[in-house]
Amino acid sequence: MNYAILFVTVLFAIVQNTVADDDEDVCCAPRFVDGVKSCPDFENQGLNEKALVMGFQGEDSDGLVMGGAFDVLMSIDDEYELEISVQKLTEVGKEYMYGAAANICGSMKEEDAPWSPVVKSVNITGCPIKEGVYPMSEVVLNLDFASSLMKHEFCGEYEIEVAVLKALDKVACFILSIEVYEK
Question: pTM for the whole thing?
């Protein structure tokens, strides 16, 4: 399965849940807090996140840089869904911000999508995605769409849970921690 779809979709999820005044100056930038981790008390059966490397390009975070490899531990077909939940970490706990679900194979067909360069880089042309390791050359995804998020009111830490489901059973679950901070 293509992890790029997961993480770019997560970034879109945050942006789609945000409305900001376009006249405001961008005063914040995103950064990863802990990288990609397995969900607590969950054994990933379908995907291994350890070979994926992510970071932000440039001081003003003009792009999300992805590299490494996608380690697919099982064949993925049209029966698999991607589920995303974004929560902001607050002093009193987690505040739900956004949730979405999509068919993995269906989302790969969107050629004009921001994650399209990643799909091409790992040379996955469609489903089923066979078990194996899919090396990825370094790919930069443009994050201009997220500029409305880089405002003071959105500073804070976010926990993004990305799960892969077959029917209602989770076969993979990952946590991505991102902080939006003042520059």
Answer: 0.74
